[in-house]
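Blinded run. Sample ID left blank on purpose so nobody reads anything into the name before looking at the predicted structure. Input follows.
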Amino acid sequence: MKNKRKVGQIGLGIMGSAFARHLMQAQFEVIGYDPQKKAQKFHLQQSGVLAQSVAEVARSARILITSLPSVKACEAAFWGAQGILTGAARGTVVIEASTLPLEVKFSLRDRCAEKGIIVLDCPISGTGAQAGAKDISVYASGEARAVKRCSAVFEGFARSMHYCGEFGNGSKLKFIANLLVTIHNLSAAEAMVMGLKSGLDLNLVYKVIKDGAGASRMFEIRAPMMIKNDYRAATMKVDVYQKDIDIIGAFAAQHHIPVPLFDASKAYYAAALSQGFAQQDTAAVCAVLESMAGVQRKKKRIQK
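Blinded prediction complete.
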């Protein structure tokens, strides 16, 4: 592996493990870390190099990717006793790919800059399934030279990369994208329940609607789960997505942006969370609507 380019991957969950796999296929050596044993085992099975701490990852590569589920996890990765700041050399670039409040992103950038570490705001557009298929887009923002330096890495794990200008623009665009995802996912569920209640075969609904003006990427991706009535193979877990919903809502409120459809959607995701779907895919909002509609499927809905 001596001649391979090295990338550090911090966070090996649904998204991070997909990044790592694609980068390894692109002939990068990926040094990874995740506190979860299951994620560690999977990374080793994919032929990745497993570090014992975030600091070890930071010492091993000059380009790092962070893909983390929460503000708490992000702060631990950057500021912890064995975090990025304790291991990264000056000039290291961090591709920060998590969905986080803007003030958190700016704090990461500013505190790391004091140590000569460059943080880029690079959230991802796409689900876990899309990440697995290398069908995601990166919204890269921050120092242009650093983004250019990472171009081969972006090419290694994403379908496309958009340079969005000044730091923070990537997150603003991600908030817009996720606002639409929130609404479109629920609208896909509405369509499937309408199909159920009207006696249509859901496979026919999917085939016909996907080919017409009413289609959306969320309909294409999530309707198959709704047809199967099985949401266990999560591409975005309900409990993790609740964090994204809260971030978008706070951003909209801060800037006095009217988001009536988004606001109306939130209750159904909260219901999915409270009804036992926390660890399952957000397509489970379909199950919430089915219950409201009095739909009884022949196949028993599976919950954890």
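Unblinding after everyone has recorded impressions. The chain is about 55% helix and 10% strand.
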